[in-house]
Specification:
Largest sheet: 5 strands, mixed
Strand order of the largest sheet: 7-6-8-5-9
Radius of gyration: 21 Å
Low-confidence stretches: none
Strand content: 15-25%
Order of helices and strands: HHEHEEEEHHEHHEHEEEHHHEHHH
Number of helices: 14
Helix content: 40-55%
Shape: globular
Length: 362
């Protein structure tokens, strides 16, 4: 809203009504409306670039090639919204999923410190498990399943490197590959030993974690804007992790808009000056447009961004967001199954492998 209010301030002849909607609801609802030749919005924002391209291939999206200077963006950020060498959407801001968040005050009170090895990570979990009032060391966020996918992808990147993340996305490596199985066995071992909680609705999990019912929470950088005191917040990745998942919100214009000129003006703003406005708010985001300086970031995010740079972590695409389609929902559902029945690991991995688009799955 801060971004849109600033835009309307600069363009008093344009009025914007903002309607929030979950990504999965946007894809489900708008796909049907587009087929009927109508749109409920002039500009749509979604993290699912694959869906924008799918809609473009069906003739539902306005081409925006030339609307922005493509050289002014983080490398590769536009590739996901290109089809037929044309641009169908523009990037807004990016979120990062860098590791396990904790309260500095909680760690200080109990003499805890960030781990530097896998063994130290296990020792930390054991220390936390012994603290009175703690239900589980790590809270497991849930909703439709994406919070579980985030922590799972972090394990993949930490123990298989960014290259394994890419190979799982393309299908070059299967989920039944021995290397992948070994990584998932590490994760299920932690679930079986009670280090992770049962899945809890992710926003409610934030409150319980902040109330110190749990000590660690794997979540994206937007969590910095969801806590009472972001200055009491810190994070650490799994020791040795060389990559961090980055996800982008993309904006596009449905073909059926009746306000094309105004929509293009807004799209251009969201992709440029609007990013500087957005990253200065408690949204926990970083810019994709290179015209924004890091000192324009909301102060708590400046420290987060600096630590990621200090750790020299490569930004890697989100696995399920990139593959998309029915497989994305399947991935979420299979992880929810894994969290409550970790003994079904082999079955879960076989399902993910056989249903992957690269394997001809549906």
């Amino acid at each position: 809203m801060t971004v849109l209010e600033k835009f309307m301030e600069e363009n008093p002849n344009i009025t914007i009504k903002y309607v929030p909607m979950r990504a999965e609801e946007v894809a489900r609802t708008l796909s049907v409306q587009f087929e009927a030749g109508v749109t409920p919005a002039d500009v749509v924002i979604t993290p699912w670039a694959w869906w924008i391209v799918e809609m473009a291939q069906k003739g539902h999206v306005v081409e925006v090639t030339g609307l922005i200077n493509e050289d002014e963006y983080v490398g590769g950020i536009l590739d996901s919204v290109k089809w037929n060498n044309k641009l169908w959407g523009v990037p807004f801001t990016m979120w990062l999923k860098p590791g396990f968040w904790y309260k500095k005050s909680f760690f200080a009170k109990h003499g805890l410190s960030e781990p530097n090895s896998w063994d130290e990570f296990l020792q930390l979990l054991d220390q936390i498990k012994g603290i009175e009032g703690i239900k589980n060391p790590i809270v497991s966020g849930d909703s439709v399943g994406w919070p579980l996918s985030d922590v799972t992808e972090h394990f993949i990147i930490a123990f298989g490197g960014p290259e394994l993340q890419y190979k799982l996305i393309t299908g070059e490596v299967s989920f039944t590959d021995p290397q992948v199985v070994e990584i998932f066995e590490r994760l299920t071992m932690l679930i079986e030993q009670g280090y992770f909680s049962e899945p809890i609705e992710w926003t409610g999990a934030v409150e319980k974690w902040w109330a110190e019912e749990y000590a660690l929470y794997f979540m994206g950088t937007w969590i910095t804007g969801m806590v009472e005191d972001p200055n009491d917040l810190a994070f650490f990745p799994l020791p040795g992790a060389r990559g961090v998942v980055g996800g982008t919100d993309y904006a596009f214009i449905p073909k059926y808009t009746e306000n094309l000129d105004a929509a293009k003006l807004l799209l251009q703003y969201l992709a440029t000056e609007g990013q500087a406005v957005h990253v200065s708010t408690p949204a926990g985001k970083v810019p994709t447009w290179l015209g924004v300086d890091t000192d324009q970031l909301w102060p708590p995010m400046q420290g987060v961004f600096a630590k990621i740079k200090e750790l020299n972590m490569t930004i890697v695409p989100d696995l399920d967001d990139t593959i998309g389609g029915d497989w994305q929902v399947l991935f979420w559902d299979q992880l929810k199954l894994l969290w409550v029945q970790p003994d079904r690991l082999n079955e879960v991995l076989q399902t993910l492998a056989s249903e992957h688009p690269a394997a001809g799955g549906g």
